[in-house]
Amino acid sequence: MPGTRKLGKPTDQRKAMLRAMVTYLLETGRIKTTVTRAKEVAPLAEKMITLGKHQTLADYRQALSFITKEDVAKKLFDEIAPKYSMRTGGYTRIVRIGPRRGDGAEMAILELV
Predict the structure, then answer these.
(1) Structural domain of residue 88, as residue ranges?
(2) SS (H, E, C) 54-78
(3) Which pLDDT does position 2 carry in this prediction?
(4) Quick check: is 3 in a domain?
(5) Among 2, 63, 71, 104, which one has the highest count of C-beta atoms within 10 angstroms of its own C-beta?
(6) pLDDT digits over 14-31, tens only?
(7) pLDDT at position 1, please?
(8) Residues of the chain falling short of pLDDT 70
(9) Residue 113: which residues within 8 A CB-CB, separation 6 or more?
């Protein structure tokens, strides 16, 4: 099925979860989650970094409308995005780390390159 994965959640909860995960990824630089969630978060994080590279007020406001913490948006524009100025994409990496102990879900680490 083309499009986004539903991740077993209603639309509003799914969007809120993905926004929170992108915010946390940009704040800390890496997150540990399931492979399917990582595959959903990665393109959103890449889009935020691309917005940060443009350095315009409109892009800052657009990033701020998605990122849940204002200080993370500021960090994105001041520190993270300039680091990737020579790179045209591929700002994130998904590393599989094996099954989770409780339910056997395939786990991964999503990190900024």
Answers:
(1) 11-112
(2) HCCHHHHHHHHHHCCCHHHHHHHHH
(3) 57
(4) no
(5) 63
(6) 999 999 999 999 999 999
(7) 44
(8) 1-2
(9) 87, 90, 91, 92, 93
For 46, other C-beta atoms within 10 Å of its C-beta total 17
Residue 34 · residue 105 · CB < 8 Å? yes
Give the length of the chain: 113
- For residue 51, being part of any structural domain is answered with yes
Number of domains in the chain: 1
Q: Indicate the helix (H) or strand (E) that contains 110.
A: strand 106-112
3-state secondary structure (DSSP) of residue 35 = helix
* Domain contains 36: yes
Long-range pairs for 69-75 at CB < 8 Å and ≥24 separation? Answer: 69/23, 69/27, 72/23, 72/26, 72/27, 75/26, 75/27
In the 8-state DSSP scheme, what is residue 79? I
